[in-house]
Please model this.
Amino acid sequence: MDISNRYCVIMCGGVGSRFWPYSRANAPKQFIDFFGTGRTLLQMSFDRTKDVVPTENVIILTNEQYAPLVKEQLPELKDAQILLEPTRRNTAPCIAWAAYHIKALNPDALIMVAPSDHLVLKEDEFKRCINKGFDFVAENDALLTLGIKPSRPETGYGYIQIGNAVTDSISKVKTFTEKPNVELAKVFLSTGEFFWNSGMFLWSVDSILKAVQECAPDIAVQFDKGVGLYGTSAEMQFIKQNFASCPGISIDFAVMEKSKNVYVECVDFGWDDLGTWGALYDNSPKNHEGNVTENCKAMLFNCNDCVVAAKGDKLIVASHLKDYIIAVADDVVLIVPKSEEQKIKNYVNEVKTAYGDKYL
Amino acid sequence: MDISNRYCVIMCGGVGSRFWPYSRANAPKQFIDFFGTGRTLLQMSFDRTKDVVPTENVIILTNEQYAPLVKEQLPELKDAQILLEPTRRNTAPCIAWAAYHIKALNPDALIMVAPSDHLVLKEDEFKRCINKGFDFVAENDALLTLGIKPSRPETGYGYIQIGNAVTDSISKVKTFTEKPNVELAKVFLSTGEFFWNSGMFLWSVDSILKAVQECAPDIAVQFDKGVGLYGTSAEMQFIKQNFASCPGISIDFAVMEKSKNVYVECVDFGWDDLGTWGALYDNSPKNHEGNVTENCKAMLFNCNDCVVAAKGDKLIVASHLKDYIIAVADDVVLIVPKSEEQKIKNYVNEVKTAYGDKYL
Model:
């Protein structure tokens, strides 16, 4: 199998405030060894690309401020494989830039886009699905998204409804649906037609460029100005001057929900976006009292169903807590019921109001 | 008023494990600025002796390991005012040594013995009572203990029952009673005859030496061997060789409960031994939700009646906790209901078993 035309774009610019203070502005979630395996989520995302994409074709898109972290965690990469966004503009400009950049490197490129902070438990199945998806987009002018077989009526994810089948696992997309309420999520699950939107995509460079130009001309017009500069020493200067002019919009809104040739490959490789403490808890090994301890020493007395995460060699001693999150950084301690975790963002805002960036 | 014969012995060797991890083995409770006033409990204890005892007659008894902390916190003292115990032997040997030492310095000395980690809110009343007590022991061969007028049926303190009155505020002691259960404590409170045992004492050097020799001959025999060495450069060498031979016993058991000439001065100067988080909570200012924040930044959401203490410039964010203690050190976080605080010592033991001295 010739994989030399394959590229992987790993999006690595998120700030991860939902895991504050375990995840901090200066070292968000993707840069943390969440499971104590010795590899961070970014490193695990990179590791998964081996065998399906040549290492020299892996491209990391991240915010300027995280360049040192990316280089430290992925020393295998050359500097040219790290594209630094001068400002945050959501996923559509990020993915568009990557496409223009790759087009200049290899006009026949096939691209896989992947987040840097998701969990994949079944790596062999992941590779099998990615190979299948690459083959599909090599032969079809298609925007292929990976839809995850749902295991529960999750209200934290978007859903994709499948339409007509094209192969045994690939179908046309019928609808994209935003995060449903729990009643609707249960209906989705029961029909068998709805899959979780994973945020992973496969396409040829020509297909995504054409789609951006058709569906998101306000983004395309910014990047079209740089044609001739991508892949050259002038690229970064151009990006610094023009990237901020792009609207901040997701690839789902900007392209996937508008384009006609959108397909979904239905997969089941133990995926989770780890977007919440609840998801982290669900995906982590538990002791006999149902407690999860991420990367720290914890002595829990009469505690049940808690998740404890701490940076460094900290000891957490707690008693009589049920269903709590305990997250500890050097200068911040957060203690909050799991059921209140959606409030953490509010707390972070209040902390910012009171103390500025000191504790973010 | 001539106060030149007055001495104060401040006992400063405790390890304060009940406030772990806010209080640590290397910096126990007495060395902490618990109330954020800029003065530690030891410094406040020292400050209170001003006006009633000459500064050069204040003697600190502490464990060898705390010598640097004492010198740092009380730079007013000469090295000769700090007596270093080579090992821990409870209060009786500590107080006996101080008596032998002071006898060599001034055979007419009057001595006040005070813990280093208690709270006194009404300093003027404290000084008035101490002056009165000094006058009493100057004129009587008496061991005078300070009994605190109880404000609640506290089960964490020992009680002193008063006997026949000698002056308006000084009586013979009828009985010493260990920590009572709550029913008995309520009875104690209702009779008006019982006062909290504060651990503060006043006596002449001759009275205490005579009492030690009569009531605790096993201690006296050790220190008698050093007569002639106290107050000389040979004293410390003698102590290093002999102090450990003393039994580890409290002054209450060894002397006060046995001696015939024991008196109590009934006082009411806003005393608390701060021996528990509950006591600390009771003695600290509370916000409108009943939360106490010692020396740290805390943002508490839907929390009530909690006490939060952290070292350094830490931020504690908590939600939905009622009646909890949150104590944070650099490498340890403790979260425990106030009602379970007597278990903290057990937790510390488990921590020691698991990790040795690292987190103590």
Remarks:
- Residues 120 and 158 of chain B are 18 Å apart (CA to CA).
- The longest strand of chain B covers residues 194-204.
